[in-house]
Amino acid sequence: MRSYARPGFGAMVLGRLGRGLSSMAKPMSKKRVVIHGVSVGEVKGATSIVRELERTRPDLEIVISTSTETGFAIATDLFPDHEIVRFPIDLSFICQRFFRHVVPATVILIELEIWPNFLREANKFGIPVAVVNGRITKQSHKSYRIFKGLLPQFNRISLFCSQGPEYTERFLSLFVHPGRVMETGNIKADGLRVGPVDPGQELRNLLGNPDPKGLTLVAGSTHPPEEKYVAEAWLAGLPGARLVIVPRHPKRLAEILKNLSEIGINPQLLSDLRTGEVPDVTRPAIVDTIGELERVFGLANIAYVGGSLIPHGGQNMLEPAAQGHPVLTGPYLENFTQEARILTRAEAVRIVADTAELTAALAELGADGALRKRMGSAGMEATRSQQGAAALTLRALQASCLPPAPA
């Protein structure tokens, strides 16, 4: 039913069942390494590892794997010179087909996308599997401890490169051998450019604030009903600014428009602006396309990072911080505790409890340019201090999982 209702969903399902893999079954001049990111965040996070491998191991062929439609689109855009494949559905015969056609020498999983049949079949084929940028949320850790004797089977993984000490401890508590766990840091920081990002003249004309002294608030990676919360806070705390909303899933557009209409807001869509609608700074703009968040953050004077005012777990707040923007986020950050700790320590982020606190924070930042500059500079320095994880991770992979480099 979803395949009929959602364009592209059926192709994704067929791809995860193995369709299209036959093109991979060709004579190989290089050994292959599969790098898997489940969706947009993980695929973007893989950038630094892909670039390090390109630089240091030209003898390897890199294949990018992903699970979702949006992840596939981002991977195609980021890695045009590499093969992009769908991660197999976790049925043994589907995983066997994947390994027979792709024939990887190593599989690298970004963060913690692990499936029992995939791991079992990788072991049967003699393919080492590594987890890089590894993390386990507190809730997932509890579940894994309950079922640690059954699924997933962590002892089938050759290497865990964890983001930080709390994740290292959680891996070790699941009876992972200490020799298989290394703390290498957060590779997402390596994939970020520190400093302002040029959004380009088109986005500046369509989404920017035409007043040279005016402000722009960018709310990125929002989840339902955060668009409504942010718009209410904007109206009350920063009404003269341009509001740009970049939802995590643009396919929720109908729901977003309905929620905003309930508070009397009629937003503009980036797709309509691109076809000739005149920009109106008094109306919020919604970016109803994918893959443009980094450049849209380039327009911001203040950034809000979503998935955090509702119990979702947050999104990556290092992205706007790296560009030098003061960052606001909600309290639900269990998926990004390390990033929150880094930016909080640097005083580069404000964590607000609800819409009222978000309103007050917007009003304060809107009135205090020195505070915005101070928080932005602190965010850039905090991000820069975390870089280097990709090189550490690659050394760990070289030592335990990757095929030997030619002499």
Contiguous runs where pLDDT drops below 50 for at least 5 residues: none
* Amount of helix: 40-55%
Main β-sheet description: 7 strands, parallel
The CATH architecture of the largest domain: 3-Layer(aba) Sandwich
Q: Which outline best applies?
A: globular
CATH topological fold name of the largest domain: Rossmann fold
CATH class of the largest domain: Alpha Beta
Strand count = 14
The pLDDT mean sits at: 93
Contiguous helical run count: 20
Strand order of the largest sheet: 3-2-1-4-5-6-7
Instruction: Report how far the terminal alpha carbons are from each other.
Output: 54 Å
Structural class: alpha/beta
Identify the CATH homologous superfamily of the largest domain.
3-Deoxy-D-manno-octulosonic-acid transferase, N-terminal domain
